[in-house]
Specification:
Blueprint: H1 2-20, E1 25-30, H2 35-50, E2 54-59, H3 66-77, E3 84-86, H4 91-97, H5 105-110, H6 113-116, H7 119-122, E4 126-127, E5 130-131, E6 133-135, E7 137-140, E8 143-146, H8 148-154, H9 162-174, E9 178-181, H10 186-211, H11 215-218, H12 221-234, H13 246-254, E10 258-262, H14 267-273, E11 283-286, E12 294-297, E13 300-303, H15 309-322, H16 325-335, E14 338-339, H17 351-365, E15 369-371, H18 381-395, H19 402-416
Parallel strand pairs: 1-2, 1-3, 9-10, 12-15
Antiparallel strand pairs: 3-13, 4-5, 6-13, 7-12, 7-14, 8-10, 8-11
The protein binds beta-D-glucopyranose.
Length: 417
């Protein structure tokens, strides 16, 4: 009798333990390795550790995440994926088809995620109708960053059209500054290109080109114009850009060596980490010609199926933590993005984040949200890779006619469809 009751007590304790005291471990794969990004990632680690769990950092350096995805595939193929990985957009569906992802329905129902998240974006983190990932934020890609001290020295106003952008760039170059701070990686070239496509082809053209991948749009005269404009932009980038990381390019702006950078608002994380203030030390301007439109990039953590119960509990806690207002505030203020919870109080956010939230809500209400191709939101990784190959090749081939690049774009996409 005694033995049985001890056993029963032991069993009931064992059932309780994972929910109450067992610390689990979550291994999180991400590529937040710049100074500013790391500060943001640290906020998640801290909040998870406060819940009694162990954070196993799996950071793979490389902006845009290409290197991280390669490492993740190797781990998944060997049957040992991490608990969570930064996977975004349509790629989530590809991972879902492999049957490796955890079902977050219980956590999502408990936290009423369907009510918290913008509908269009909630679909992105579901597979087969179930949540398999938790979204962290919304980044805006169509931003132009400006160093106002440099602009004032040259007597410039923030540009609102592409013509004004080039005229400002001419003056910056003539005054001895790097007009446009840029790095040398395919995803950075892709980021410039998608901004130009939105400005030149307009929202319908952008959608037809990158989401529908319509051959007529891909080979159109406007697409050739986007390539020609990309070549023009390149002439304002310094000769040392090859291989440079995006955050080093932001550093050139922060140090007053360059006047402008075209980059998503993770660039703001570097300004924040350097103690600089939005609207005073730097300015965020909607990329000329794309006002009223919002190219979005949503970071999300996909959860993999786990067999260890304590680790599974820790994984659920990670998912819960991400959508807590406290995390949304700390993380996004450091990351440069805006909260993915649209009910978040924005009063403690800076002027760029406030503008971004306002523009996001407005764009969401009138069909103005465009998914970023360069940041995994518009198409599969195969289509994205095909676009990067053509764009970077054109970027580095001064004699290639823009019309030929447009033809190559359509052909490269067709080949991977
Ligand atoms: C990610 C951001 C990241 C940036 C630079 C983007 O694709 O969404 O979280 O900061 O790449 O690495």
């Amino acid at each position: 009798m005694k033995t049985i009751s001890r056993l029963a007590l032991g069993l009931s304790m064992a059932c309780l333990l994972p929910l109450t005291t067992h610390a689990g471990e979550v291994e999180v794969l991400h590529w937040w390795t710049s100074g500013g990004e790391k500060r943001a990632a640290d906020t998640l680690q801290k909040l998870l550790e406060e819940k009694g769990h162990v954070w196993k950092d799996f950071a793979v350096a490389g902006g845009g995440g290409e290197a991280a995805m390669t490492v993740l595939k190797t781990r998944a193929v060997s049957g040992n994926p991490p608990a969570a990985a930064q996977i975004k957009g349509p790629n989530i569906q590809e991972w879902g088809q492999l049957g490796l992802l955890a079902d977050l329905t219980a956590v999502a129902n408990q936290g009423q995620w369907d009510k918290l998240l913008p509908e269009q974006l909630a679909e992105v983190v579901k597979y087969d109708g179930h949540y398999v990932a938790v979204p962290l934020n919304i980044h805006r890609v169509n931003w132009l960053w400006i160093n106002p001290t440099v602009f004032a020295k040259v007597g410039l106003q923030p540009p609102t059209t592409l013509d004004e952008l080039f005229s400002a760039a001419d003056k910056l170059k003539a005054a001895g500054y790097i007009a446009i701070a840029h790095g040398g990686q395919p995803w950075q070239d892709g980021t410039l290109f998608e901004n130009l496509v939105l400005a030149i082809l307009g929202p319908e053209g952008y959608h037809k080109a990158f989401v529908e991948q319509d051959p007529a749009t891909l080979t159109s005269a406007k697409m050739a114009e986007a390539f020609a404009t990309l070549r023009k932009l390149r002439s304002y980038i310094d000769a040392d850009a090859a291989g440079r990381d995006w955050n080093a390019a932001t550093g050139l702006l922060i140090d007053g060596k360059a006047g402008m950078q075209i980059m998503g608002d993770w660039a703001k994380s570097e300004w924040t980490a350097a103690g600089k203030v939005a609207g005073k030390d730097y300015q965020c301007v909607v990329f000329p010609g794309t006002q009223g439109r919002f190219i979005y990039n949503m970071d999300s953590l996909v959860m993999f199926k786990l067999s260890n119960e304590a680790n599974r509990q820790a994984q659920d806690d990670l998912a819960r933590t991400v959508l807590e207002p406290k995390f949304q505030e700390f993380f996004n203020q450091n990351k440069g993005s805006i909260p993915v919870r649209l009910d978040q109080d924005m009063s403690s956010f800076d002027s760029c984040a406030q503008k971004s939230m306002q523009d996001f809500k407005q764009a969401a209400s009138n069909g103005g949200l465009e998914p970023s191709l360069a940041h995994d939101m518009a198409a599969s990784s195969y289509v994205q890779g095909a676009v990067f190959d053509v764009v970077t090749n054109f970027f580095n081939s001064p004699d290639m006619p823009p019309e030929k690049a447009a033809e190559q774009l359509a052909a490269a996409i067709k080949a991977v469809q």
